[in-house]
Amino acid sequence: MLWLRLNGSRCLLWLMLALPVGAEASEDLLGARFSPVAGNPDALDFALEDRFGEVRRLSQHRGQVVVVNFWATWCGPCLAELPTMQALWERLSDGPFEFLAINVGEESSTIDRFLNGFDPPLGFRILMDPKMRVVREWQVRGIPTTYVVDRQGRLAEFAEGGIDFTDDSVVGRIRRLMDEGG
After folding, report:
1. pTM of the model
2. Pairing mode of beta strands 55-57, 65-71
3. Within the chain, which residues score under 70 in pLDDT?
4. Hey, which end of the chain has fewer CB within 10 Å, N or C?
5. Which structural domains are found in the chain, ordered by start?
């Protein structure tokens, strides 16, 4: 598991477990499950640039279910998640749904080089948090970390670790939130 430790303005990253290789690797990396967020507090708003320089705010998506995923190009479970994130976005993007993938602490040139390797390109929004301000505000302890924000802007679901976003239980949970509060 990859952990992120924030200590003042310093950020220490370390790999605590070697990543598996082989055919089972992506399955092993995508074993996390969503849990409900106790009390459904309001999600903290943020304003971050996407990779094209456009500022996006979470609050712009009020009325939609928003999956907020924190990731990095060097994170094995994050890499395994990306194709499943694209599949979920394609499956649900015609409804009240948005996917915001927040890159944690990397330069835009690194992110661009990495994302240019996807064919077809990823369709969901990639936001950049180079100073890790949103990571601190959202108290992210490790990556990947994913939150699901309901249509009223409240935190509904939470997971630390890689998620298979094509899993029927994940799709079902998100669809239920999409059907609520419309």
Report:
1. 0.84
2. unpaired
3. 1-28, 181-182
4. C
5. 31-179 (3.40.30.10)
